[in-house]
């Protein structure tokens, strides 16, 4: 038989069977005591799949293996955050302490928002020390760019941004030398500001050093934060072809926001009026901004000297997710005995409370002092008060709802400073880190956060699988 006749025969047979499928009653035909049924066309075209038992069981075993693997990873990171020298001490040992902050960091870029990390500290963080490595980690993980919150005029030089301010400016701060004006609490979130009485100009330029991350070279969003005094403050921002002027005559804390039409590496902000200029937020697209706020010579007891209403109003305009307070080193030479340590830590507890009351949505991390060496009987050894100071600071921070991180432990503990100096990682004063040492310490702090972030993600994965 020819092939085309076979094809026609098969097609006719299929058509006849399809017709029977369609025409045959759904409930069948009863013949005597037998009910004859014929499958429906839908059932033939879409037959019921039979469960592959072996594949099913193998898949279940695989899910169990994945779950066990995730649980093993979870326990690994849990050990890291609980036992390592770079661990965080958390209030009530709550491993979920940073969860909300991480969730907000993850969503910030997608929402086009900027979540701030504000790093306050003494001279250990000058020149963007430690902060720069933390910024590199957070922005690499969650996006963002720019140098963060900077003063209107240069206070301490930084590699992250170049600032040049001029005009009728008066530097105000509750700390510093005799050239600084005390202003009865009007200092803002940088714990120092510049009062303009007339006209002033600030020139900004992104990082130019090869040591800085590329994300510091450009910015796309500038925000001038200020507290108006009687009379309006007029401000103009210019960056390339972009130029915009804003004016506000209402007293109190305000912000001028400029969203540039393109990335810029330099800008000029000119102001006229009578106001306390808190600073400028130099940011890029959504993600995380990390601010470096060094306070040379400070013991960390200055936050209660800031007008609380003004500080609260400023923080509310900044979208702060984390505030880091890194203090203690400047007080070490003057602490003698348990009572002096207890008194100092009690004062720091009040600072934590003030910051938290003014910025209730932010997590607070307190970082204790590094190891520091002093000469005793002709030998360089750790200041005797440091181990107890670190432990008391840890308890104080946790009792006041803040996490604690110990540079002292992260660098090796007692008498470790001499080794850091001998390896070129700390200076000859046996107090401050060199650039290389500060980078290492910043990376260790970033690793501590990464351990917490990995633990956060692992807990979420295990919960989803279960």
Would you mind describing this structure in some detail?
Strands 5, 6, 7, 8, 9, 10, 11 and 12 form an eight-stranded antiparallel sheet that branches. A six-stranded mixed sheet has the order 3-18-15-14-4-13, with helices on both faces. Strands 1-2 form a two-stranded antiparallel ribbon. By secondary structure, it is of the alpha+beta class. It has helices spanning 3-23, 41-45, 53-83, 99-111, 131-142, 308-316, 338-358, 386-399, 407-410, 417-422, 435-465; strands at residues 29-31, 34-36, 88-89, 114-121, 148-150, 161-172, 193-206, 219-228, 233-239, 242-248, 252-264, 266-283, 287-294, 320-326, 363-368, 373-376, 379-382, 403-406. The chain is extended and about 115 Å long. The longest helix is centred in the first third of the chain and has 31 residues, at 53-83. α3 runs antiparallel to α11 (435-465). The mean pLDDT is 88.
Let me know the largest β-sheet.
8 strands, antiparallel
Number of strands: 18
Radius of gyration: 32 Å
Question: Roughly what fraction of the amino acids lie in strands?
Answer: 25-35%
Helical residues, percent = 25-40%
